[in-house]
Structure formats: C-alpha cells, structure tokens
User: Fold this.
Amino acid sequence: MTLVKREHKLGDPYSQWGRFFDRPLLSSDFWPGIMSYTNPMAIGRGFPVDVYGNDDSYFLVAELPGVKKENIDLKLENAVLTISAKRKVDEGENSSDYSMDRSITVGDDVDSDGVSAKLANGVLTITLPKAEERKPKSITIG
Amino acid sequence: MNTQVGETEKNQGRDRNSYVKPRYEVSNRENTYYIDVYMPGVPRENANIVLEGDTLTIEGKRLPYKRAGWKVLNREIREEGYKLDLQLNVDIDSEGITAKSDQGILTVALPVAAKVAHRAIPID
Assistant:
C-alpha cells in the first residue's frame, strides 16, 4: 500500500525542482563582465547556484541537500570554479551514489588563495575575495 | 534589459506569500513510513510539521541567502518557502511521529497505527 493517496495541488513532485534548470540564463550583457555560466543541463546533473557580490568579494550559494562536507570538492583552475558533490543515499539494503557537478567561470580578478567555503543546512556558500588591485577605490583629487 | 531587472524586483515582493513544493521521497521500514523532504536552507527551528486528519502538511522557511550589502549577479535559487501537502492513505499513529533534520533534508517518521500495522500472529 502506498502512503500517499494524493498530493494537494497536484503535480509531479520534481516539477518545481526542474524549474530551476528550465529558466533561461541571463544574457551576458547583464553581467558586469566577470562571471559567465555553464548551462547545468549541458553537464547532466546540476544544482542551482546564486551569485552575489559586494565591493570586496563574490559569493556563490549552491543548494546541495544531503551532501556531507567531506563529499564536496572545490577546484579553482584557470579561472573556472568547479563544485563536485557526491551523495550516498541509504535505504535499508539499497544504497546508491549520486554525483553532481557545476562549473562556473570566474574572472581573473579573484584572489584564488583567499577562497573559503561553508556548509550549513544543505547550502554551500563560497566566498571569492576580489584581488586587491581590482577593488573599487575612491581617488582623491590632488 | 533594465525593464527585466525591474520586473524581477517586483516579483520578489509578490512571491513572498507563495511556496515551492519541495522534492520528497517515501520509504517504508518496519511498520513506519519515512518521508525525506528536501528543504535546503531551512534550519530545524524553521520547519513545521502538522498532521490534521489524514492531511500531512510540512512547511519550511528558508533563511535568506542574500546578506545585507550583497548585490544579486545571478539568481537560480527560488527564495519562497517550502510547502508540502500530502493526503495520507494509511492510518498513522500521530503520537508517535518523529522528525529529524540533517543537511537540508527533513526526515519525518510516521509509524503506522497499531490497528493497521502488519503483525505476525502466533498460532496456539
């Protein structure tokens, strides 16, 4: 016997999840010329990522529910940040592995030594500090 | 392009009271059903589980990812809260419901009510 008779507001349980990936990518002229995106659908299993920024840093936020810290691999190489995540699902005798990847092109203005990351409640936040010489400065008129 | 950015801002206000349906999985072990609800960004204290009659409602409020002073450069993650409404087919022992939250997944354990639980019947 199945547990769920029906869902209120009928629909495919994955439909909302899929909506993340169906959205058109913002056109490149929106970008301040720093980061560009690889379409997650083109790589297979992806996950949604938000990008924020302030004067000092860029911030990448990725939703990775169920993924443990030790199963996340971050690599910054040639201005491309790759987030790889593995998840083991245990259901009694059955266990299966999922892996997900996302590659994001970051600009050459990121201080690669200062990159840090934090995982909380299934959400990974990566801080990419801007290199000192690229931060906005106010110029005093002499 | 500018008009699109403007619309996004407006939508954020309108969406404040709407919900996203989280992905979920159901499994069954030893007279207990387990529902794994994927709610990344929801800390334990922001999740709410209610069983009313045969309707199980699970809600979760995300902490906002955007901090003060951050500018949005690209957004794929929806910011609405999660809400899952399920009409159950099985009598559940509502007193025995437990839940735990781990890495953005809320697991709700629903023990089957004693009168419908599968039992081995001893033969005298």
Observations:
- Residues 2-14 of chain B form the longest helix (13 residues).
- Chain B touches chain A through 48 residues (CB under 8 Å).
